[in-house]
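Write out the 3D structure for:
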Amino acid sequence: MQSLERGLAVIRSFSEDSSRQTLSDVARRTGYSRAACRRLLHTLEELDYVGIDGRDFYLRPHILDIGYSYLSSLPFRRIVEPFVEELSSEVKESVSVSVLDGGDVVYVSRVATSRIMTVSISVGNRLPAYCTSMGRALLAAMPLEEQRRHLAQTPLTALTKFTRTDENVILAELVKVAKQGWAINDQELEVGLRSVAAPIVDASHRTVAAMNISTHVGRTNLRELREKMVPALLATTQRVNALLTKR
């Protein structure tokens, strides 16, 4: 079990900013000895998950099989993807679907029309749930005690001057989201970014994911977000939920 844990830590040490690493880089980022990292990296190379170029190690495309195994196991993903593409085409904005994992939302489907964030978002990316529209749509489906426990275990950091970090304020917002069936985020994650999200439910009427539309403040004001984007999003998620609840 320890070897598996360490092997996964080595894989996670690679990122967009560290796509190629030396043995020393991997040891520093994982906290393991150089000898342990050397054994792990060469095992991963034998499995075709890691490649070697001189002193540099890098992840090979075969590593995608691990993530794809998870994505292909999501029963709703195949159903929801055509709706993501259709909604994005309709509103001419980026549309995403995410699931909750610990304190984060993890993107499992996305159609991006333009880059509206300072970081590039794609399938597999994680963002904090407490200050995202999809995160709040997912948290709103939880019982109050579970919401409190989630927020207590999450560092509520102000990412922008608009970010709400008071636990009671966030809990009150979750009550509102649960009643109206959708969540709006106005520049709490990143200045200039607005989004609206709604829940996706399975055959047991359990919230399993959330879908959102994200836009830039220069293109969409709050009134337009509520009057144009919310109805389009709800119409789409209602169609998705109707299909999933029949399964």
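The two ends are 37 Å apart (CA to CA).
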